[in-house]
Amino acid sequence: MSVPATAVYAAGAVCWRLIDGRIHVLVVHRTVYGDVTIPKGKVDPGETLPQTAVREIAEETGLAVALGVPVGVSRYQLPSGREKIVHYWAAHVTDKAVLASTFRPNAEIAALEWVTPKRARSYLTYEPDRDILDHFIALVDQGVTETFALIVLRHAKARSRSAWEGEDATRPLVERGVQQAAELVGTLSAWRPRRIVSSPAVRCATTVTPFGAATGIAIKRDDGISQDAWDAGRDEVRRVIGKRVRVGRSAVVCSHRPVLPEIMREIALATGTPLGSYVSDAADLDFGGFSVVHLSRSNPSSGIIAIETHAPTA
């Protein structure tokens, strides 16, 4: 989607939690404007939109969150005439995060309030916020708010086959690939993956090494999603993906371009999702690009809830 070069970008989330068995969402009362909104903020230089959403929520509310399903994009004109484009996700706030919140009323945010979605709709000052809340309410009505993400990642830029004399699996990343791997850390962290599964190939393992080092998550190297296994017809994509779907925890799966379509296909099949062009489109990734496939933890039969695809930043 083309947007004006002068557009202002921002990101936020519909933060939700269970209180007495009912879903409540968080609204913020802003000090200066005297309005009620969904937590959000402008993108800082060098940030991606998912990074912005997590950072802004932490700064405005003191809450550490992991992003869930995307719930829409609002676009409106600022008094200056520039267009503002705000991307939103759902974000489940755990009891632990609430207890650890560092929020104090300040010059920007006067108060936080947890209310039912219906009440939030009447509280919110702006129509674009109500539209975003309606997208979230639709998820609630479908029973698919409790989700996890499978992040399907293509390895970063590596030495070409023609420029490498060793075995294909030992091809290293080029300088650009090393930069891509480093820049993945902040964005992947927005979904708080709990596992990293990678092809044993050097170019794949090296791509996820910075993220593993930053989070302390061990990298599980699995030949079942390697290109060597794929080329030999002995891949085990179904086993690898089936386990990730059964476990129901967010994970990064790093593999190769020829294997990615089968990984996406197996996610669809494992969740009973009809196959379509959107599945193959999500597998068409550049070096260092990834697709986030959102699945319901509470309602597995609902299939793929959403897919968002992110291009490399370097």
Comma- or semicolon-separated keywords:
single chain; 314 residues; alpha/beta; Nucleoside Triphosphate Pyrophosphohydrolase; Rossmann fold; 2 domains; 7-stranded mixed beta sheet; 6-stranded mixed beta sheet; 10 helices; 13 strands; 33% helix; 27% strand; globular
Structural notes for this entry:
By secondary structure, this protein is of the alpha/beta class. It has two domains: 8-142, Nucleoside Triphosphate Pyrophosphohydrolase, CATH 3.90.79.10; 147-310, Rossmann fold. It has helices at 49-61, 95-99, 117-123, 127-142, 175-188, 202-215, 227-232, 237-247, 260-270, 277-283, and strands at 8-19, 22-30, 36-37, 40-42, 70-77, 83-92, 109-115, 147-154, 195-198, 219-221, 251-255, 290-296, 304-310. Strands 1, 2, 3, 4, 5, 6 and 7 form a seven-stranded mixed β-sheet that branches.
**CATH-derived architecture of the largest domain:** 3-Layer(aba) Sandwich
Determine the mean pLDDT: 94
Query: What is Rg?
Result: 20 Å
User: Strand tally, please?
Assistant: 13
Which class do the helix and strand fractions yield? alpha/beta
**CATH superfamily descriptor of the largest domain:** Phosphoglycerate mutase-like
Number of alpha- plus pi-helical segments: 10
- CATH fold-level topology of the largest domain: Rossmann fold
Uncertain segments: none
Strand percentage, roughly? 25-35%
Helix content: 25-40%
**Main sheet attributes: strand count, strand direction, barrel closure:** 7 strands, mixed
CATH class of the largest domain: Alpha Beta
